[in-house]
């Protein structure tokens, strides 16, 4: 599952995803997202991006719509 595929499946500006530290770092690097930890979830789960590593649940909001898809495509 690629970054872009995940995004297409979630139409809302607010995403709720489980991210490992590596994939979380990719979100931070774009500076297009506001990322907050879901503190209700204390247990680690399998990352929704890489489906390989484990991480925590995060709430991810897009700062601006429209430009994120271009950025994702270039990072594949
Ligand atoms: Zn991951």
Distance between the termini: 11 Å
Radius of gyration (CA) equals 12 Å
Helix content: 25-40%
Q: How many domains make up the 3D coordinates?
A: 1
- Give the overall pLDDT as a whole number: 80
Based on Cα principal axes, name the global outline: globular
Largest sheet: 4 strands, antiparallel
How many individual helices?
3
Give the bound compounds.
zinc ion
| Range of strand content | 25-35%
Overview of this structure, please?
The protein has one domain. It is 32% helix and 29% strand. It has 3 helices and 4 strands. Strands 1, 2, 3 and 4 form a 4-stranded antiparallel β-sheet that branches. The protein is globular and about 30 Å long. The N and C termini lie close together (11 Å). Bound molecules: zinc ion (ZN). The site of zinc ion has 8 residues, from helix 2. The site of zinc ion (ZN) has 8 residues, from helix 2.
At a glance:
The protein has 76 residues and is of the alpha+beta class. 32% of the residues lie in helices and 29% in strands.
Topology, please?
Elements: H1 3-9, E1 14-19, H2 21-30, E2 33-37, E3 45-46, E4 54-62, H3 68-74
Antiparallel strand pairs: 1-4, 2-4, 3-4
Bound molecules: zinc ion (ZN).
The site of zinc ion (ZN) has 8 residues, from helix 2.
